[in-house]
TrEMBL record:
PROSITE patterns: AMP_BINDING (PS00455). Residues 26-408 form the AMP-dependent synthetase/ligase domain. Gene3D superfamilies: 3.30.300.30, N-terminal domain of ligase-like. It comes from Rivibacter subsaxonicus. Belongs to the ATP-dependent AMP-binding enzyme family. Residues 458-532 form the AMP-binding enzyme C-terminal domain. GO terms for molecular function: ligase activity. GO terms for biological process: fatty acid metabolic process. InterPro entries: AMP-bd_C, AMP-bd_C_sf, AMP-binding_CS, AMP-dep_synth/lig_dom, ANL_N_sf. This is Fatty-acyl-CoA synthase. Keywords: Fatty acid metabolism, Ligase, Lipid metabolism.
Amino acid sequence: MSSIYDRDLERNAANFVALSPASFVERSAEVFADLPAVIHGARRYDWAQTRDRSARLAAALRAFGIGRGDTVSVMLPNTPEMVEAHYAVPAINAVLNTLNTRLDAPLLAWQLNHCEARVLITDREFAPVIGPALRLLKEEHGREPVVIDVCDSEYAGPGERLGGLEYEALLAAHPPLARLEGPVDEWDAIAVSYTSGTTGDPKGVVTHHRGAYLNAVCNAATWTMPAFPRYLWTLPMFHCNGWCFPWTVAMLGGTHVCLRKVEPRAIFDAMREHGVDHYCAAPIVHNLLINAPAEQRAGITQQVRGMVAGAAPPASMIEGMAQIGFDLTHVYGLTEVYGPAAVAVKRPGWAGESLSEQARLNGRQGVRYALQEGMTVLDPQTMAEVAADGQTMGEIMFRGNLVMKGYLKNPAATAKAFEGGWFHTGDLAVLEPDRYAKIRDRSKDVIISGGENISSLEVEDALYRHPAVLACAVVARPDPKWGETPLAYVELKPGSEVTAEALINHCRSLLAGYKLPREIRFEEIPKTATGKIQKFVLRERARSAAAIE
């Protein structure tokens, strides 16, 4: 039924523009042209130069015939070229595919074929794996994308050029586009990011301009980020598009401080030299900083704020960050919700609590981002919300503008993920009385021993409270009597020693007897490029070891 407000009040170019983070780059170039935008070793670019370089890349891609719905893949570390790809590709309404730099050639070839990449921008450091991937792509799928080689000024290692085009020469050969415009329709795809593929082929998560724009705004609001932040790239930009922070930094006229390698000394040196005040990382990276020699932190006088996600942070890590003077914000999300889409909002009263209680409160997955329409814990069978009693288990689910379009070429998986009108995360959690969600475990990581459910996260949290433990992961080990028992893999801090018996006795004071790890193995724990522990590898190890005993 129409009303008086439907007549002669149509959308037009003056009152409606599709939301796209490309607009953030144009604004910063317009109003903050002379302010620093990118720092990378000896290279420095202000916002006018960054916009110019991005617009030249966009022009070059357009000259190759790249436009709406075409995929541009990148195999890059956290360098200026990676920042520029996040600005240039959306500006011509193409789709950005950031490749995980730790993947092997067959999986890279599979992804490049699945997303039908027409252009590949690759750093020559990765030539040893990209070269074979391109050969597989041609031999098995008949695809030959345009290859653009990046020869980073800060990389002096080996690596051949694979294509006929060099990045800097390409930029020099193309005048910049007049404007980084973005799409006509904000529902258009902005990126496709692949899940880890722990069961079967990876799924291509397709996100849209509207969601990327809104999540970039949410990042700033959630963190109360000031204008002109100095943001250090410890988080790989290939992971969920850097949790949308390439666009958040552009919105705020901030400075990207690039980092090719994530090492404690390099991180602290960058913080000290460039006045870094914000960074994001998985728990393992924060633990590296906590356990680094104190002299490496000397001279860092500014307040540094860290954001943690990627895995549930142990309370000991949250306490450790507070002890070294870093302010930590815990966020939660998945690739399917643009990275973080929930946050453990710190309430004013928490500051008066003990450090251990603050760690417990901050360790929860929390509440939805301000621009996410829904997040709660539902019974996946009935789709009814669980009681907010801190005991009743359900599954965390999201709905709203910060949820993916769906999985590329996978309608069955898309339909299953959206059953009942909510996105199903697979994370089992409770709602506490203040309506903050707290993950108990991933559904596949719950250990069922003698009919009792054991949260692997709870056992890990107990282990992390031992001063010798740097990293740990607990998985189910097949057991002929109990069905499954907890098996712990542990990495110790450099110079530390502890026996398995001592660790189990330590856990005994924190856990019920049936939850204690029955075995502890001291060995390196497999991790993704973002520092996330690969439990699926450990589950396979545990099953294989049990099978041969």
